[in-house]
Amino acid sequence: MQPSVYHGVWRAAVHTLRTRGTPPCRLLSTAPLADAETIFALSSGHGRCGVAVVRTSGPASATALKHMAGLTRNLPPPRTALLRSITHPQSKEVLDRGLVLWFPAPHSFTGEDCVEFHIHGGPAVITAVLQALGSVAGMRPADAGEFTRRAFQAGKLGLTEVEGLGDLIHAETEAQRRQALRQMSGELGRLYQDWSHRLKRCLAHVEAFIDFSEDELIEDGVLNQVDSSVCDLQAEMERHLKDERRGERLRSGVQVVIAGATNAGKSSLLNTLCQRPAAIVSPIAGTTRDVVETALDIGGFPILLSDTAGLRDSPDLVEREGVRRARERVEQADLTLVVVDCAQLSSAAQQAAAFIRGHLTSVLPTQEQPETVFPTDRFLLVLNKSDLLPEEQKQKLDRELRCVSGLPPVCLISCHTNEGLQDFLTVLHSSVKTLCGDPLSGAPTLTQARHRAHLQQCFAALAQYQRYRDMDMALAAEGVRLALTSLGRITGRVGAEEILDIIFKDFCIGK
Amino acid sequence: MLTKKLPPLQSFLVQVSRRASHVARQQYDVIVVGGGHAGTEAAAAAARVGAQTLLVSQKIHTIGALSCNPSLGGVGKGQLVKEIDALDGVCGRAGDWAGIHFSILNRSKGPAVWGPRAQLDRQRYREFIQSELLSTPRLTVLEGSVEELLVTEPNPEEPGQHRVTGIRLANESHPISASSVILTTGTFLSGSLFMGQTTSPGGRIGDAPSSAGLSHTLRERLGLRTGRLRTGTPPRIVKDSVDLSLAQLHPPDSHSTPFSFLNTHTRCKPEEQLPCYLTYTTPGVERVVKESLHLNCHIQQDTKGPRYCPSIESRVLRFPGRSHRVWLEPEGMTSDLLYPQGLSMTMPPDVQLRLIREIPAMHRAEIHTPGYGVQYDFVCPTQLSPALQVKSTQGLFLAGQINGTTGYEEAAAQGLWAGVNAARWALSMPAVALSRTESYIGVLIDDLVSRGVTEPYRMFTSRAEFRTTLRPDNADLRLTLKGFEEVGCVSSFRYQKAVRVRDSLQDALAALQSLALSPSIWRKKMPDIPMSETKNNVPTGMDILQYNDVSFETMASAFPECLSPYMEFSQRLKIEAVYRPHSEQQRKEIERIQREENMSLPQDIDYLSLPVSLSQEVREILDRVRPSTLGAATRLQGITPAAVVHLLNYVRHTGQKERRPHRYRTDQREDEEPRARNTSLPR
Questions:
Q1: What is the pTM of this model?
Q2: Assembly ipTM
Q3: Which residues in chain A are contacts of B74 at CB distance < 8 A?
Q4: Which of A263, A314, A321, A260 is nearest to A289 (CA)?
């Protein structure tokens, strides 16, 4: 295909694709990308930090800067730090005092107008600034990897940076998925799912009314039902958006879960790490039945450590529930410490490795099939009770297991004698540090701001349905479609086929 | 167009058969197999693009036959007809010629979802199509049964890649060669007919089954995956035997709106048109269906049927205890039959009679021809490119029901696009694609080739993401200009007309935009408009025209000096004003999709061993579907954003490597000038 018109980046990319010989080091764009939406995100990592950086990109950046930094007349000189009071654009409430920087297009990271707010690193300040940005017209929280993607599209990334883009987006979507799972499993999740379900039905009925009511018998009451559903949804969303209570307190920090077979010493590990007997420890298998949580600080990074019930099939109802919860936690975890009683390991390294692999498989969330490579960055293998092994076997095991590929990092420790604990803490610290470098993992404030923005869009779109209900069904339906798309950014995308499923289930549609 | 006189059918047949004796050994650019909706549009489109085209049909006189319902258009389908017409296709004009009852469905629901529809006179429709094909330059029609599809052995350099070389007819020893072959065999591919407990081979009652050779070549030699689908048709009822006083009368619209952008009126005037009638099923209908299930092979085998209800049996079984609509539609101006829309059935004929007589208006009705079911093979359309070419066989194109769709309009749309691309292939021009952001035809083709089908695919407006942009009123602006400038399937006559429309609309919109007045002046000029007092801005004519009660006519009478030149576009301007703000909102999403669609993925990527980080699941999806563009890949279920970026990276980096330009043929016709109009050769 040789289409005559290419746009923006793709033009550049396609051009590169077709040019033989010297590959250009940079993608050059002939026209700036006409993306009307302006995005914002926290671009520094979270954790204990003095300064947080919030970045925006897009045409509304200048408006946001003017309104929030009190610069009514002129924009500051480009790329120059300016100390300003940062205020909410509507309420004029002062949120923080910090540095602002203005990067007009095209001399910015993304090639678009960009603004950076360097603010104090506390969660309250960050949340307030993010929410304030969300209230500026034309601004929304960035999707996973969107800044990088825009930079790529504008031809601002060199080849090596582009290489990293896929991994980056992967990491971000993974972190978001886990974050979403955590939120979705609670009360809030049930609420959003219920809204999504009702909206889908509304849309299906509106679509059925448009596509089929002339030929088939679609009951007259269908639209009235949609009307009242939309009204209810609007009222519920409005209440929800106004509610200043945040429901259950969102857990913050990197989620670290201890999992493994019974009596491997998981609770001992928890107690060792938090330096107090937070969990009951006994030689009886199945002592821990519920999830025990402790907030910890590992080398300056906040983590939420959970001890879980030992994984085994049990006839005991309470224990079974404990095991179910344990598996749920592993699925939602940023990092899982798999504890193995090393006395159970064979002295031959190969057999030991096979045992460990089998063990990991049983701990892994069911959806992640181990035939692919282990997500080693999400697991740490803790071989406990090293004090029970003779010294030479210990060293042999440690040495040989390190040579086996495809296993997560291995630490040989004893919770009893604290042997190997220091090394383990070093490994744990570096894992947590990596996870915290990802600004999205375990940052509930950001997720919250994102959800809020999507809910507001959803709410606004429903008003479009009502505005056009008696004028133009196509435009009214567009409102419901938009509402579902916005909500779908929280609960998952809804395709045309899913809507058709509901239509064909609810109505008798002929050939 | 409507004023032309159709040549008598007799002379058509004479001319065709005379040609037939000459053709046997000729070479063509494009051969179209099948003369249904897909085949006729394909042949006409290929010839318009400039290819010497041969249409082969089992029976000349069934070319352009309406095998099932005597109607065209509707909600979603009407949009397709408008788009086919905008690309200079045949069916819109044929509908205007043959229509005997015109109405616009969804009139109260907004112009974006209006469904232009017409009941057709079967004979007039067939006559128009046949006469149109006859008068199309470069197009030859031949009666014959295709015995074999000729393909080369796989190319050793590109394993699994065949190339089509022509066809061989039954009872003919010499093959007819062609660069492109379009198969539009409808329900004839391994088709079998079902009525009661009897089954017989065939694709339509009264026609011979097609040869097993074609089916064999597709499956065994070309290795194409096929599936099986079913459909059916209702019995035809003798009109005089129906008590129409017991049915609700539905007259046509008082003003007929033609399908074609070239026509200002329909051939049949509203006062001459025939009505339709509406009746309902009764509990007796349900009883008859249930009592006769053991006599009904087609339904008994219906274990994994479609989600919708194709037959009266499926309707009453899945939605029992309700009454269902049955439309009684005229079959033609002089026909003495009625078509009972909604009563497709496959039980034995005597039970069919018992069933229809359970409906009060038909309590003494007679059946002229009983209904029956058809089961047939379709080729899984994910094996096609967006040009509707079989990916593994150069020059082989498929269109219509063979791709798993149902409906005349869906078939015609594919036929047109396959015809365009088959001709372009034969003339060594690059393939062209229609995006789902610019047309329903694009939505249809993209859904087919990137998602495949599990049940007969029918167009609904809900399938189009950009429904408020893809409207019936603006199909010419969306497609006619492109059809002439980039595709080459539109005549310059139609193009000139579309250019004039575009320019006038632009001028009119500019005039409306420049009418920026204060609210008080607006109120003075147009006292009836509901304008709020407090607004201190300066609304333009475009803003005011969005109001529900304001028509372009009233505005033009208030400002005759600047608006009266555009009176002929009053309706289009009103529609444009209402939808424009929403189109603007959709534009950026459309642009994003178009950017991704402009990134084509090579068809020869080995996804299973691609040295990039993709999960096994993603690899398998990509390997199965082989999306043509990054955009198509993005829309696949199970493809993650990360996978898309990895793909993009890979393609970008390997793009510089040597790759055979497999889209262009370089081996033939270097001596010949391509005969295409309005297009330039690649490179």
A1: 0.74
A2: 0.88
A3: 214-215
A4: A321
